[in-house]
């Protein structure tokens, strides 16, 4: 079961902002490594970012989706919000797909610009998702 912070707008917002802030910082480190063309450092930054997305952002998504978690509770207590929950869950799926693609590409290619594009897409989807989710908590 997810903790009480997930059920209140302000603490949930703080979790989202902290997660996004860390992703931005780590993505900036990747960009700096790409500018100096240090492949070893680039690959380490990519791995660090993948780990971050999995342990910080996607684990948060998993907690929201677990049985008895935030999404379960909202859908159970507010059946009219079920479509919102479906859309938010799809956002999580998109984040998972992008992370999986990044991991696969990092193993098979050194097209770092393309990988960076996907990290940027992760941040955009996550930011939109977070605002939509926080609006749901206001209601």
TrEMBL record:
Q: Where is this region: Disordered?
A: 1-21
Q: Where is the composition biased (Basic residues)?
A: 1-13
- On the tree of life, the source organism's domain of life is Bacteria
Q: What is this protein called?
A: Hemerythrin HHE cation binding domain-containing protein
Organism this protein belongs to: Salimicrobium humidisoli
């Amino acid at each position: 079961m997810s903790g009480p912070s997930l059920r209140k707008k302000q603490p949930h917002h703080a979790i989202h902002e902290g997660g996004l802030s860390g992703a931005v910082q780590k993505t900036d480190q990747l960009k700096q490594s790409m500018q100096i063309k240090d492949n070893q450092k680039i690959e380490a930054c990519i791995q660090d970012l993948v780990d971050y997305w999995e342990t910080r952002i996607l684990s948060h998504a998993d907690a929201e989706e677990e049985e008895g978690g935030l999404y379960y509770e909202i859908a159970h207590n507010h059946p009219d919000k079920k479509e919102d929950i479906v859309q938010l869950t799809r956002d999580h799926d998109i984040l998972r797909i992008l992370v999986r693609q990044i991991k696969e590409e990092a193993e098979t290619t050194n097209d770092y610009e393309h990988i960076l594009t996907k990290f940027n897409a992760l941040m955009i989807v996550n930011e939109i998702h977070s605002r939509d989710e926080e609006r749901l908590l206001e209601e």
